[in-house]
Design goal:
By secondary structure, the chain is mainly α. The chain has a single domain (about 35-215, about 235-395), classed as Cytochrome Bc1 Complex, Chain C (Up-down Bundle). It has helices at about 10-15, 20-25, 45-60, 70-80, 85-115, 120-145, 150-160, 170-175, 185-215, 235-260, 290-295, 305-325, 325-330, 340-360, 365-395, 405-414; strands at about 30-35, 230-235. The longest helix has about 30 residues, at about 185-215. The mean pLDDT is about 90.
């Protein structure tokens, strides 16, 4: 791809030696984008924006945080009370985690609805799932750092899950703990990894964007760009669209920061960690609740697999399953707009995930267990049974000839 001619002599001198301006040009003004992208495509850039906010605020929080079990809780209180604008930085960081998961979950469900996992975007999708896994690991370790009651006992419960694995399970748990219980070595390990993983996340996001620029964006029609009229430059058309969406998003984000900063938090985490007192109901953060419900739904042995190990495997499988999604869906049509039957199953899956999140917060007893088992059964049946079956038997609607033809027809109809 040829480099643009720069009129500014300083820009030209720098670009001849380090073509950073040419790279920016090819990634914006020179990047062809489907002309029919909707606001659902804003959430990728929003996720990157929130990641930057999280890293910047995290760097400032580290300046005043003490990773020691005797001082961690008090150091967080000091950040809130004594550090200039510490309360603001912490509330942005704390609520930013929830915002990050909100935009990424919307981004994933948009990809599921419009078939963004299908070829030639398989690696792009797999990298997205890797990003989700890294986010989960980073968020879990960050939740432990305030060293409140829920931090301590959440870490104890989650790390103990690895003991379910035969042979290596106890070794993994001891490695995570740095001893024989969740204590100061555990906090130091989690602090170190919580600081490291966001930079690993940045690297994988870079690969994700690289793959995106190689295969180009999907679009609501699921039709590939075939002619010049199908695309427009990313800048200024979609940069303006992204900035508008970003403004609305930050209004939503800052509402929680200033008016409901503890909305997503657990009250028990404002009590200093006490290994002698177990909270009556241990729950993870809201963004882990669907997977927590799947974990607790397996209350029975599966052939030779014990119930505890079966729950752990089911929880991890619910995420790993997304990686093989491009090969489970064999339909030639990408977008659910042209799949009249399957799109109803998609919305059932969406409601099922919300229901699993609700069940994850409830105690694992009585009818809640049965409901969690049924919801878990549907989750796996959707990907392993319904999706492959619909790929074979569903009668799809005819696709438009091209993106530009569909856009022009829509304009004429309007």
């Amino acid at each position: 791809m040829s480099s643009p001619e720069w009129n500014n002599p300083v820009v030209k001198w720098v670009d001849d030696r380090l073509p950073v301006f040419s790279l920016m040009h090819h990634s914006t003004a020179g990047y062809p984008t489907p002309r029919n992208l909707s606001y659902w495509w804003n959430f990728g850039s929003l996720a990157l924006t929130v990641l930057i906010v999280m890293v910047v605020t995290g760097i400032f929080l580290v300046m005043s945080y003490t990773p020691h079990v005797d001082m961690a809780f008090d150091s967080v209180e000091r950040i809130m009370r004594d550090v200039n604008y510490g309360w603001l930085i912490r509330y942005i960081h704390m609520n930013g985690a929830s915002m990050f998961f909100i935009v990424v979950y919307i981004h994933i469900f948009r990809g599921l609805y419009y078939g963004s996992y299908k070829g030639p975007r398989e690696i792009l999708w797999i990298l997205g799932v890797v990003i989700l896994l890294l986010m989960m690991g980073t968020a879990f370790m960050g939740y432990v750092l305030p060293w409140g009651q829920m931090s301590l006992w959440g870490a104890t419960v989650i790390t103990n899950l690895f003991s379910a694995f035969p042979i290596v399970g106890d070794f993994i748990v001891t490695l995570l703990w740095g001893g024989f219980s969740v204590d100061n070595p555990t906090l130091n390990r989690f602090f170190s990894l919580h600081y490291l993983l966001p930079f690993v996340l940045f690297a994988v996001v870079g690969l994700h964007l690289w793959a995106l620029h190689a295969v180009k964006s999907n679009n609501p029609l699921g039709v590939e760009m075939k002619q010049p009229e199908d695309s427009i430059p990313f800048h200024p058309y979609f940069t303006i669209k992204d900035l508008f969406g970003m403004g609305l998003f930050f209004m939503f984000f800052l509402f929680f920061v200033f008016w409901a900063p503890n909305f997503f938090g657990e009250p028990d985490n404002y009590i200093p960690a006490n290994p002698m007192v177990t909270p009556p109901h241990i729950v993870p953060e809201w963004y882990f609740l669907p997977f927590y419900a799947i974990l607790r739904a397996i209350t029975f042995d599966i052939f030779i697999i014990p119930a505890k190990l079966g729950g752990v495997l089911a929880m991890f499988a619910s995420i790993i399953l997304l990686m093989v999604l491009p090969w489970l869906d064999r339909s030639k049509v990408k977008s659910c707009k042209f799949r009249p039957v399957y799109k109803w199953f998609f919305w059932i899956l969406f409601l099922d995930c919300i229901f699993l999140g609700y069940l994850g917060k409830k105690p694992a007893e009585g009818s809640y267990i049965i409901m969690a088992q049924l919801a878990t059964l549907y989750y796996f049946a959707h990907f392993l049974v319904i999706l492959p079956l619909m790929s074979k038997i569903e009668k799809v609607v005819d696709l438009p000839e091209s993106i530009s033809a569909a856009v022009l027809k829509k304009s004429e109809d309007a």
